[in-house]
């Protein structure tokens, strides 16, 4: 059974028909072809599917697509600025904060949500913000450095 | 793919109560952190569910209101709001602290206090704090409106007194007079984003070196979050010295064993539980070292 929803996605107004039993993650990846958002554990433990809804980092595997009706949604695809990599994306590359890259979109969305509320976070604050994002190969040191440097430090 | 269901999004509590009334196949969707994974994994708990009632559009369900004597938290309030609320931080710091260590930030941005105790997992982190504060909850249906202590509401793991047509709407906390102090401790397998292996909340009052009131609640090591009344009774009226606290910590070990039986983890957990209990009581009585 489908339901009509309207929401803002990466600054663009969207009006879609969506299955009511579809998770937000599947809706983004399958219906909208926004495959930057990854599916890891599917139970809210790994953070690979992290996106920003109404300025808060959330796991898109733990929401239904119909729940973003009227909301403002940002995915990793929305980070790009004027067709170029954002400062944070560039820092992830420069600091070697990407290895396999699977955790990277979720990691960046958690970090971006932090910076939206706190433009100059401490290392401890960065660690808290990304505690729900597991990385199994790059190592957190470079990731924290990349986030820290993208705040202009 | 998740089984078919419809999602209803009422705007008022009354509307939600009407929707759930006489519809035993409907369930409440609050933060969704248990419900949506449950559906996704095909949990037997949701086999009969055909309707989800999303309460996130009801303002009262996620409001925190403060009066001179109380703080009332809408049952659908996400942990992030509770952790950041100045009134909760000031008057109910153990609740703020315990909510701040639940899951990850992504989880705390969605998961709700009501969902935590209605799910009633043994490891529900907000429960020990709510129990030592003697929280009451308000439960409404289309034809009834009742209040009860949270302690009575929690029956056994994953089972509460909630009836199919009812919604828990409020958590009611009564402010305490000065002189009460407390501590909360959580032990998981790692520091961040861990399922609790052991939680303990202690809350009490020392007057003229006598323990005049004490409340001790545990989670994860007991079948559900619960007050340890036998231990509290033994401590009240005792001198606030090291011997009393050590005695209490040893006693706690025996009580937990009686409640849970000997499990494979007991040789590890019991001494840890006793030591943690001692440390928390010590801090409560003598302050932080």
The unreliable regions of chain B are: none
Annotated CATH homologous superfamily of the largest domain in chain A = Beta-grasp domain
Multimeric state of these chains? heterodimer
Distance between the termini of chain B: 54 Å
Name the strands of the widest sheet of chain B in spatial order.
Answer: 4-5-10-6-7
- Count the DSSP helices of chain A: 5
- Strand portion of chain A: 15-25%
Mean pLDDT of chain B: 90
Helix content of chain B: 25-40%
What structural class do helix, strand and pairing data of chain A support?
alpha+beta
Largest interface, Cβ cutoff 8 Å: A-B, 30 and 30 residues
Please compute the radius of gyration of chain A using only Cα atoms.
15 Å
| Main beta sheet of chain A | 5 strands, mixed
Q: Indicate the low-confidence ranges of chain A by residue numbers.
A: none
Class of secondary structure makeup of chain B: alpha+beta
In the sheet with the most strands of chain A, the strands line up as 2-1-5-3-4
Give the percentage of residues in beta strands of chain B.
Answer: 25-35%
Summarize, please.
The complex is a heterodimer of chains A (153) and B (289). By secondary structure, chain A is an alpha+beta fold.
List keywords for this structure.
heterodimer, A: 153 residues, alpha+beta, Ubiquitin-like (UB roll), DNA polymerase, domain 1, 2 domains, five-stranded mixed β-sheet, 31% helix, globular, B: 289 residues, five-stranded antiparallel β-sheet, four-stranded antiparallel β-sheet, 12 helices, 14 strands, 35% helix, 26% strand
């Amino acid at each position: 059974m489908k339901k009509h929803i309207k929401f803002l996605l990466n600054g663009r107004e969207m009006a879609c028909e969506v299955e009511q039993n579809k998770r937000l993650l599947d809706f983004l990846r399958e219906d909208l072809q926004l495959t930057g958002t990854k599916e890891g554990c599917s139970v809210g433990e790994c953070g690979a599917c992290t996106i920003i809804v109404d300025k808060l980092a959330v796991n898109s595997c733990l929401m239904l697509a119909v729940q973003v009706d009227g909301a403002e949604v940002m995915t990793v695809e929305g980070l790009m600025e004027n067709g170029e990599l954002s400062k944070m994306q560039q820092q992830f590359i420069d600091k070697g904060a990407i290895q396999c890259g699977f955790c990277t979109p979720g990691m960046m969305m958690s970090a971006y949500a932090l910076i939206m509320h706190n433009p100059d976070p401490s290392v401890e604050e960065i660690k808290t913000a990304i505690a729900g994002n597991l990385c199994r190969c790059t190592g957190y040191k470079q990731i924290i450095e990349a986030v820290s440097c993208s705040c202009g430090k | 793919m998740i089984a078919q269901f419809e999602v209803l999004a009422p705007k008022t509590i009354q509307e939600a109560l009407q929707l759930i009334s006489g519809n035993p196949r409907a369930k409440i969707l609050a933060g969704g952190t248990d419900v949506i994974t449950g559906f996704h994994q095909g949990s037997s708990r949701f086999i009969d569910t055909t309707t989800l009632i999303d309460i996130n559009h009801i303002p009262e369900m996620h409001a925190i209101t403060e009066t001179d004597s109380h703080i009332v938290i809408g049952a659908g309030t996400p942990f992030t709001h509770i952790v950041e609320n100045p009134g909760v931080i000031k008057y109910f710091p153990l609740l703020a602290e315990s909510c701040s260590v639940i899951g990850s930030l992504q989880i705390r941005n969605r998961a709700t206090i009501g969902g935590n105790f209605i799910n009633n997992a043994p490891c529900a982190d907000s429960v020990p704090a709510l129990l030592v504060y003697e929280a009451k909850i308000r439960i409404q249906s289309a034809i009834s409106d009742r209040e009860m202590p949270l302690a009575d509401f929690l029956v056994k793991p994953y089972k509460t007194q909630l009836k199919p047509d009812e919604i828990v709407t409020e958590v009611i906390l009564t402010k305490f007079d000065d002189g009460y102090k407390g501590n909360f401790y959580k032990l998981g397998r790692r520091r961040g984003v861990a399922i609790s292996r052991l939680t303990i909340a202690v809350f009490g009052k020392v007057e003229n070196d006598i323990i005049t009131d004490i409340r001790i609640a545990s989670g994860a090591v007991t079948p559900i979050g619960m007050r340890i009344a036998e231990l509290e009774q033994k401590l009240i009226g005792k001198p606030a010295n090291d011997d009393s606290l050590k005695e209490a910590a040893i006693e706690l070990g025996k009580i937990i064993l009686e409640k849970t039986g000997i499990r494979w983890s007991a040789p590890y957990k019991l001494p840890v539980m006793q030591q943690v209990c001692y440390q928390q009581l010590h801090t409560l009585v003598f302050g932080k070292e």
